[in-house]
């Protein structure tokens, strides 16, 4: 099943960075809405060591045909060497909201 709408998720190391990424994605019309969740605790392996860090998750709602551009946008502006960028399909939802989501990314 192909989705017309997606959530693009990334994490950053501060609330300020999350707000900057969220606002700039909206301003660029690459996302209609972005939600910031955090702080969260992330546990991961980096440079051969298990690490723990406080992070903020940014969830960007966008039209599927804008997700590639949004992913590229995030990779260029992200403060991490290897940013998490995950695209998750939205398989249902309010038709009015989903229509608004597409309109705001044009």
UniProtKB/TrEMBL annotation:
Record-linked InterPro entries: Ion_tolerance_CutA, N-reg_PII-like_a/b, N-reg_PII/ATP_PRibTrfase_C
GO biological process annotation, one example: response to metal ion
Molecular function in Gene Ontology: copper ion binding
Domain of life: Bacteria
Similarity field: Belongs to the CutA family.
Protein name stated in the entry: Divalent-cation tolerance protein CutA
Organism: Amycolatopsis dendrobii
